[in-house]
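FAQ: What does the model actually see?

It sees only this:
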Amino acid sequence: MLGVVETRSVSPVFVGRTEELDILNDALAQAAAGTPQALLIGGEAGVGKTRLVEEFATAACRSGAVVALGGCVEIGADGLPFAPFSTALRALRRELPDELAAAAAGQEEELTRLLPELGEASGGRHDEEGMARLFELTARVLERVAADRTVVVALEDLHWADASTRHLLAYLFRTLRTGRLVVLATYRADDIHRRHPLRPLLAELDRLRTVRRVELGRFNREEVGRQIAGILAAEPDPTQVDDIFERSDGNAFFVEELAVCASEGCGTGLTDSLRDLLLVRVEGLPEIAQRVARIVAEGGSTVEYPLLAAVAQLAEDDLIEALRAAVNANILLATPAGDGYRFRHSLVREAVSDDLLPGERSRLNRRYAEALEADPGLVPADQRVMRLASYWYHAHSADKALPAVLDASVEARCRHAYSEQLRLLERAMELWDTAPEEVRDRLRPIDYTEVYPPCGCDPATTPLRYLDLMAEAAVAGRLSGERERALKITKRALHLLEDEDDPLRAAWFWVQRSRLVQALARGDGWKELGTAQELVRGLPPSEVHAEVLSTAAAWSMLHEPGPEALSSAERAVEYARMVGAREIELNARLTYGGLMVDAGSVEAGLAEMHEVKDRALEEGVSYVAGRAYVNLASELDAVGRAREAVALLQEGLVYTRKFGQLDSEAWVWTNLSEALYSLGRWDEAADAAACALRVGHGAKPRGGGASCLAHVALGRGDLSEAARQLAAARSYLGTHDPMPQHTLPLSRIEIGVAAGEGRLLDARAELARALVGDIPPGTQRYGWPLLLAAATAEADARNLPAAAQGRADALERLREAVKKTTTDTPIWLAHEQWVRAELDRAEGRDTTDTWSDVVTCFECLDRPYDLARVRHRLAEALLASGGDDERERATELLRLAHAVADHLGARPLADAVALLAQRARLALKRVPDPRPADPVEALGLTGRERDVLRLVAAGRTNRQIAEELFISPKTASVHVSNILGKLGVSGRGEAAAVAHRRGFFPPGDGDRLIAG
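And it is asked to produce this:
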């Protein structure tokens, strides 16, 4: 545990706060039991938040917990990115070095953005998930450190927190699930005005049931009396208590100030002004000590002694005497490490700082900046660049401030503190016109920007332009979630470019604008991409040109897949190769491969996508690799290879977690849910969908998870849950950016829910909406299930009088859609047969042969639920045709279908099968034979199935079996399917293995057949 919990109070007695301490101690106990705890402690300045945390931390240490304190650092008006978390992690590293090292193993490079002592952070990729990766890593590190011991992380002064700190705290409060961990944060409630940046965070956290909020009130008169008694070490005069209580209004810090003033005789003549109250004891210091206090006030929350000495420019003895006077008066405190000073309470520092004259403030900032520039070692390395930028900026020295602020923006970007990077870049734009031209001419894009290409210029010799800053700021805004600000920046940039002949820069900004418009739900972004394509049309190949084509191809793949999208992707690959833009090339190739699969070149497209994945992994292009795991698995499932998809997706989960790609991980979970559903593993599919909802950073991945949950609920007959998840999915996905991969599955679920509730007219209306403009080429994987849902709804409502009107039009619409929808793989050929069979059923024209063909198609596929559904239909057709043989076959089909439905919890199918069996007087369960049976008979195999299994075990094909038993290959196939179901295996090889392992057929018995 930490050896000493620092105390800043002058009162040796802790007064009141029994209820609040009970809440904190209860949180500590729950954390010790393994449930992470999150708390917010609010109260006005001086009410006693810090003292409460000190008491709790001391008690926690006594109980064996490890306490790590971190405070938000203010430099002038600026906060340091992630400062409280850096301080807390540094404390944990000091107290638990081995445990922290083990928790961060393999991710040290990323964690250096918070804890620079671990090494140097690489540039890495800057994308929308960069900050999320860092946040996820921080959460996991804290959970691992707190796995075997109770850890308390206390963050103070959240009202000063930078945006990145606020975002990280919100992420921790939302996602911590395991570990013996308490995370608490304090803030000044009276500082949180309507536009304070902390206000939205507090509102968000209030909605989380896992966050407890503690509001500290002022002391009552009795508590004020006890506090004064503790300060004075004597029972105070009741009149004095009344006077101090009235003037302090129960604020603990004001009580202390008034009590000390009264005891030191400096309270006479005090006004009721808060500022005067705070300054009265400072003004009682010797003049030299007052001067040092003013210097410390402007230096930030904490000022290192060497830096203070350099700025004060006093003889060392005089400086030490001045500091001693301020410390003895309890105005200043030495830092816990003994290397600097700070005010005992920030209210006093703010009062002293506010009392500075304007010229005095800028002069002090200049001296701080000059001292730090002359000797960078005066402050910790991770604070140096940020503090220098702040000092120069507040010194109002544009020539020095501009390069310093730009250096700080690069530092913020490296730490994924994109909100701070945006603020600093906006500050640089503010300084741009006031900075001397010779200073601007010395600045280079290669030093300060990395977001867009130099557009034909040599960045090492071309001066930095104002547009370069705008480009960097636009991306920083997008990455930090400040999309409105980023959109305004792109608008201003494009306005400036109207007067310039610079199509590449303009195209680049239009691509950024497209992404922002989509993210802000203002449209689908195609208009902006179209403008970018027009700007680069006819220009020589360039990185911007390749990026425009690649982005347009990716957009088309999701919105309008087809020949044009394929051509665009092919050209993007070609242009990227020409200019050596490797990441753009790999990304475009991945898009190209997916479009090839959708166009019918399945094997070539999958091979291309596998190649891209392997190359991206080998070359460390993590963004493309993560996308490859998502898209390749999706294409595998789309062509009926769900088992391959599952194996790949499980590998993808490990990869995307490792690199903190939260949205990619959520898409992996969504695709895994879909593949598991296909394979009849519905419980796992539901779990995967829930993970997608929990992990997703953006709205669309969460919409995918909700859609999968709706699909499972619909299959299980839980119509209310399906409708609820459907509404959630629509809410996540919105209406501004429709994509077939979202709209068609949601329409399929909408039709299923409406049909299940007997609302056939609503189902027809939804189909009509979905089929406006036909099913786009390349989206057959979503189109066929939609058509099937609609056709099944019509067939099920065949005998309802209310459904007669409009049925002919609905069936004709479906038949036309069937003709136009692609069937390029066995899975969709089978669906075509199925949809046509349902349309025949809707008109009462389906036959045994109709459904036998469908069953035969699905017996070759690994989709047990679909097979069970069509077996049920075949059984229905067999029973309608009559005959003992048909009844026997129907019985077996219904038993197989019921077993699958029961296993999956597919209640509608199970009920339909049971009802059909009841009407036909068929038993779904076999009556046990009291006579001892041989192993084959015990499995319920008929004599004919025994003959077929014997030949399967001997390695015969369906055609060979048919020839030997004088039956048709189709009948042989049905027998094989029945055998697989009864044995509980998925393939012929497994059936043969079971037969040999259990000794069903003794050696030499292979040619003996039993009459069936």
